[in-house]
Amino acid sequence: MIYELYYWPGIQGRGEFVRLALEDGGADYVDVALVPEEQGGGVPAIQRYLDGDDIKRPPFAPPFLKAGRQLIGQTPNILLFLGGRLDLAPRDSAGRLWAHQLQLTLADFIVEIHDTHHPIGSGLYYEQQKPAAQRRTRDFLANRVPKFLGYFERVLERNATDGPGMVGNRVTYVDLSMAQVIAGLRYAFPNASREALRTRPRLRTLHDAVFARPRIKRYVASGRRLAFNNDDLFRRYPELDA
Amino acid sequence: MIYELYYWPGIQGRGEFVRLALEDGGADYVDVALVPEEQGGGVPAIQRYLDGDDIKRPPFAPPFLKAGRQLIGQTPNILLFLGGRLDLAPRDSAGRLWAHQLQLTLADFIVEIHDTHHPIGSGLYYEQQKPAAQRRTRDFLANRVPKFLGYFERVLERNATDGPGMVGNRVTYVDLSMAQVIAGLRYAFPNASREALRTRPRLRTLHDAVFARPRIKRYVASGRRLAFNNDDLFRRYPELDA
C-alpha cells in the first residue's frame, strides 16, 4: 500500500506527526503537496478534497491520509489508524486506547502551544495580537507547560519497568509525537524549555532516543524534514521566551 | 457492566457528551461525583485517580470512565470506546474512524468555544481577560462558527441519502454531541447562533431529533441533566453576543 499524505507545503505543522510515524514505520508514502500540480499534486490536490462537492466524507482540514479508498482526517485519528499497520502501537485493545488517550492529550497541548502566538484569532497575524500573545504565553509557560510536561514525565516514569517509551514495552507513535513536541518547544522557547526540561530527564532521554532511531535519523539527514519556521505551529518570538 | 463516570460536579462540561451517550445507550452508570464522599464518591474520588501514585495509567483530566478495570480518558476516546458497546457507532471500521474523526473536529470546535471567554488563561477569571475575550469572540463568531457549522451542515447533507444523522444509516454518538454543541451555542450566543443556524436547517433538525429521543427526553425530564451555567464550557455573557 502506498499512502498519500495531504498537508500544506512549507511547514512541518501537524503533518509532521504523521510523517514521523510513516518514516519510522518504513511506510511507502507520497507527500502529495510536493508533487507538481501538473502531475495532480500541490495545494490544488488538497483543496480538491476539502472543497469537492463529490467528496462524501470531507476532512475539515489537513492533514489527511488516503489509504486505498479510505480518506482519514484528524492527526490522532490518522495515527490511530496507522499505529497498528506500522507496528507503532500496542497490540492489545486497552493499550491502543491508552496510547490514543495520550495522543489526544498531546493534541490538547499542541493547540495551547499554537495559541501562545495566536490567542485572538488564527486568521490574524501575530503582529495583530502581540500584547494578548505575551499574556497568554506568560500563563502558558508558568502553568500549562509544567502541568503537561509533569504529566508526561510521570507517564514515562510509571511505564519505566515495562519499556523505554510511554506505553507498553515498545516504541509507539506517541513517543514519536512527544519527541517532536519537545523539539518544537526547544525551538520556540529555548530558555523556558531548558528550564522546564531540567527536572524532566525522562522526557529529554525520550527525545534523544527517538531522534537516534535509524529511520528517523535517515529522514532528518535526507533534507526532506523541513526546518522549524515562524509560519508554523512552533514559532520563535524572543519576546515571548522571557 | 456498570460504568463509572468521573467528572466535576456542578457543570455539564465535557462530561455531558459522555452522559448523553450513556443515557441514550441505556447504560447502567454511576456519576461518581454525585455519590457522597463517605461512600467513596465526590471530588476526592476524582482526585484519587488524577493524583494517586499507584495509578499506572493516570488520566490528565476529567472526564474519565471506569469500565471494569479499564480507565479511559479524553472525551472522544471514551466515546470511541462506548460507541460500539452502546450501539451508537457504525459497525464497520471505516465508519468508526469517520465518526471518530467528526468527534475530534467537534472537540476542536469545543476548545474554541471555551476559549471565547478564556483566551488568555484557563486559570484566570473571565473578568481578568474581558477585552481579549471580546476580540476573540468577534473573530470566532465571524469566522469560526460559519466554518465549523458550515462543515457539519455539509456532512449532514452528504449523508442524507443514507440516514438521519451525520454518519451512516443510524444515530451515533456524534449526533448526540452535535446536538449538545448546538444547545450550548444557543445558550451562550442566542443572537449569533440564531443567525448562524438560520441557513443550516439540517443542524436545527438534528438538534430537535436528538432531544426528542425517548431516553434523552427522559434524562432531561429527570432533573439529572444540569442547566447550562456560567462556570461551564458554554457561557452567556451578553456583551460577547453582539
Explain this structure.
2 copies of one chain form a homodimer. The first copy, chain A, is an alpha+beta fold and 242 residues long. The first copy, chain A, has 2 domains: 2-85, Glutaredoxin (3-Layer(aba) Sandwich), CATH 3.40.30.10; 93-225, Glutathione S-transferase Yfyf (Class Pi), Chain A, domain 2. Chain A has 9 helices and 4 strands, in the order βαβαββααααααα. Chain A has a 4-stranded mixed sheet, with helices on one face. In chain A, strand 3 and strand 4 (70-73) form a beta hairpin. In chain A, helix 1 (15-24) packs across helix 6 (173-188) and helix 3 (75-85) runs antiparallel to helix 4. Chain A is globular and about 50 Å long. The mean pLDDT of chain A is 97. Chain A binds chain B through residues 55-60, 70, 72-74, 76-77, 80-81, 94, 97-98, 100-101, 104-105, 108, 111, 115, 119-121, 123-124, 129, 132, 135-136, 139-140, 143, 148, 151, 154-155, 158-159, and chain B through 55-60, 70, 72-74, 76-77, 80-81, 94, 97-98, 100-101, 104-105, 108, 111, 115, 119-121, 123-124, 129, 132, 135-136, 139-140, 143, 148, 151, 154-155, 158-159.
